[in-house]
Design a protein that fits this description.
Layout lengths: L24 H8 L5 E5 L6 H9 L3 E7 L2 H5 L7 E3 L5 H7 L5 E7 L4 H5 L25 H7 L2 H12 L4 H11 L5 H11 L5 H19 L2 H15 L5 E6 L2 H15 L19 E3 L9 H6 L7 E7 L1
Helix pairs in contact: 7-8, 7-10, 8-9, 9-10, 11-12
Length: about 325
Amino acid sequence: MVPVPRELGMNTNGVEYKAHKPVMGTEVLNLLKNLPPGIVIDSTYGSGAHFNLIKSKYSKFNLFGIDRDNEAVLSSNNHNHVFKYNFSELDKFIKDKEIENVKCILFDFGVSTHQLMTEDRGFSFQYDSILDMRMDLEQLYSAKEFINSASKDELNVVLRNYGEEPHAKRIVERIYESRPVESSKELSELIGKAVPSNNPLIKKKSIRRCFQAIRIHVNNELDHINEGVLKSIKLVDSGGVVIAISYHSLEDKLVKKIFHEYSLDCICPKEIPKCVCNIIPILKLGKPKKIKPKQIEINQNRKSKSAVLRYAIKL
């Protein structure tokens, strides 16, 4: 069934984790400025960009990082503070490490720069590699397995719902009749041939959307985001903050929905003149509700262009 709706050191493949500037780093630091001393958890450690920035600016925090990708953990220079956990396992991580006094939980969703740039991970259509796309290499289910075993309906649902691909039906037919599909180059060429346009930019957009959709499905990203954000609300201390940076509309809509539901102080029908539901809000929404990167940052880091930051304060 198909559910509907981040780089320092050297990894085991000899590919460097290259340090990069964290997306909306200044905005994240500003949100932490007035918090009291305590624990900050970077739940999408990646290269440690946000982790190291916070560490360099605020001595009042004890930082921990987690990541589902063991390559990120092994390549970290913060060995005693970075561990292999999916952010949907935040509760288990906090219990296992006996962590208390959590002042902030940070999420920076999506695929990391390292994962995209590592050729044999299969995330990018710019490389000719085995179709993989697993964020956690211990996971059995890969893009190759999905592409070559899914029904037409499953393929179509994924490309439409996760990629919003207008030519999904044509692309699915081309994939289906060409199976088995073994490599990222082979898949990208099939998608390009299926798109009814001679414009290479239009073809490239469809290829990007399809790769993104397949990645989201293979890694069950939206379910993990839903579970992780919900758990973070329970785990952060009163007065603490949950910060989420999204790069895809489905990610952002999910965060927005959760933050909204937990900030409501009344769910009574509008026809009732006086509140009788006795709902007590758990969160206070940040202001502004949605933060976008400044143009100067977008100019310096194109990855930040689609980023949306939302935050909420635990009451």
